[in-house]
Amino acid sequence: MQLTLEFGGGLELLCNSVKIHSVDVDHKVGEEKVQLTMKDLLAWVRKNLIKERPEMFMKGDSVRPGVLVLVNDCDWELSGQLDTILEEKDVVVFISTLHGG
Amino acid sequence: MEVVAEKPGRVRNCCLCNLRKAALKRPKTLQQICRECFYEVFEEEIHRVIVDNRLFKPGERIAIGASGGKDSTVLAYVMAELNRRHNYGLDLFLLSVDEGITGYRDDSLETVKRNEIQYGLPLKVVSYKDLYGWTMDEIVKMIGLKNNCTFCGVFRRQALDRGAALLKVDKVVTGHNADDIAETVILNILRGDIARLGRCTSITTGEDGPIPRCKPFKYTYEKEIVMYAYFKKLDYFSTECIYSPNAYRGFAREFIKDLERIRPRAILDIIKSGEDFRIATSTKMPEQGTCERCGYISSQKWCKACVLLEGLNRGLPKLGIGRRGIDNERNSRKTIENKQCGSLDF
Fold this sequence. Notes:
The complex is a heterodimer. By secondary structure, chain A is mainly β. Chain A is built from 1 helix and 11 strands, in the order E-E-E-E-E-H-E-E-E-E-E-E. In chain A, 11% of the residues lie in helices and 37% in strands. In chain A, the strands form 4 sheets. Chain A has a 5-stranded mixed sheet, with no helix packed on it. Chain A has a two-stranded antiparallel sheet with strand order 3-4. In chain A, a hairpin with a 2-residue loop joins strand 6 and strand 7 (62-63). Chain B is globular and about 65 Å long. In chain B, helix 2 crosses helix 9 (222-231), helix 7 (178-191) crosses helix 10 and helix 7 packs across helix 11. In chain B, the strands form 3 sheets. Chain B has a 6-stranded mixed sheet with strand order 5-4-3-6-8-7. Mean pLDDT of chain B is 86; it is low at 324-346. Chain A binds chain B through residues 8-10, 13, 64-66, 68, 70-75, 77-80, 84-85, 87, 89-91, 93, 95-101, and chain B through 2, 4-7, 10-12, 21-25, 32, 67, 69-72, 175-177, 179-180, 222-223, 225-227, 230-231, 238-241, 253-254, 257-258, 260-261.
């Protein structure tokens, strides 16, 4: 599944200062492709994109409180947070609010 | 309306206009609202705070403390917008402090310079080097990475006042938001800093001093500020200071963010608790005087900046750090008055 991931508010520093990543993520159980949720995507991001200080990005299996998430420019609190089901060509944005003002 | 493939059926319509898809959940009210309604309620709430608290008078000159970060960038944008829309009649300026931190402040100052053009607000930059003869880079070279935030915090507060005096403004506004204030309430409780606890929730401070400061974002959630900047594509800078872990504040911050996730109203509730604190009239509070050396407001013989500077210039940078100050007679009494309070900016 083709997705565009965008990191902002300082989070880009955790992935080699690259803000926009075009990625191909498939979620499989055995041989079968299954639906990809935000929860799966976060685990994938942590494993594949975050190069340093993962604790700045995640806490438990979710984002660290203070990191905003938007799926197709919509607050993920409206689409079910970790249970949000992702679709082809979705754009997921992560913005930290934790850096200075 | 801008449409990006929205999840069909999952996201509800805006609960205010019922026309467009909701784009965010407001932490303050839990309402699900669209972008357009969000802009409107966000700006109007700040306008209400300004009007209800009589923050400004027509004709006043106002400096916006601008760091290039999210809060001050949104503040500059919204202030310029509201000033036009509601005819506040204010003369607005951007005021930035250059601490002299290579790779951090030089970059964020570039953002402020772009904001100067984008928002049409004249910019004044005051530097630590000009005011104190030292850049933060030089200070860190001398004292190392311990306590450097104390120097920076004390110097910044004064630098903002001195810059404001140079601009001949009537007031300074800063971008401190609701999350910051809740955090400071918690910190001041943990530190037992009664004097600061009493005033950290005031929307305007320093009215008895030369240049009062106010916080139009006192009730504005950080989440909404960042969402606003994101949706409006405002140009801000978001790199952490290369010298500052500021660990203690970090713990309070994390605590506030954890609370917010469970119950977003908690932030406003903490501010309310801070406002409702009443300090026993028998408590001795620090007397505000002026620094014998530079004339800046101080509850001691010398202000904190002068003590720190004296230490730097004499090659004794530990002066003024920790509990013992320099030859401050008023400092010898062991009362609540001489608690050191770190580098809090409130």
